[in-house]
Design brief:
single chain; mainly alpha; Arc Repressor Mutant, subunit A; globular
Length: 158
């Protein structure tokens, strides 16, 4: 879901990934002592690259973001409230990012790719990767703060 904008795209990426895994399973070689860890890493890498391929095919040129006014407001908030945000809420906000921002953010922050690797994989300049990551972080921060402020308002209203 970190790379997809909706459930249908996520299912398509996962199906394509498993198809690649089944086709290429004969090429898998364990290079460490832990066969299970190597296999999990191999599968993760294939699914990530499948998501990148999906991005290249469908979302690469959709760089516009749909950010509402509520998400753009700068809100002072208690940091302890931000600690209460769930993983699902964060992923929901990541999915609201434009495809370019979402892909770079997921690859860099969640999967540990370097800007050079991201640049090579999705065909953008290293500077563009850095810029997209910075803008993605800014948008996420604003969205999470807005969501947190709304949740605090709801609690007070009740």
């Amino acid at each position: 879901m970190r790379y997809a904008k909706n459930n249908d795209d996520a299912v398509e990426i996962l199906n394509d990934g498993f198809l690649k895994i089944f086709r290429e399973i004969s090429k898998f070689n364990s290079i460490h002592n832990s066969l299970t860890a190597d296999f999990k890493g191999w599968i993760k890498r294939i699914v990530i690259y499948t998501a990148i391929d999906h991005y290249r095919k469908y979302d690469k040129h959709n760089h516009h973001a749909e950010i509402t006014d509520a998400q753009l407001e700068t809100i002072d908030s208690d940091e302890s409230q931000l600690a209460k945000i769930s993983y699902k809420e964060i992923i929901d906000c990541v999915q609201q990012l434009s495809p370019a921002y979402r892909t770079v953010f997921s690859l860099f922050v969640l999967d540990g790719f370097s800007h050079e690797e991201i640049s090579e994989q999705i065909g953008i300049a290293i500077g563009t990767s850095k810029s997209n990551l910075s803008k993605a972080r800014q948008h996420l921060q604003k969205m999470l703060l807005a969501k947190n402020n709304y949740a605090m308002y709801e609690r007070r209203a009740v």
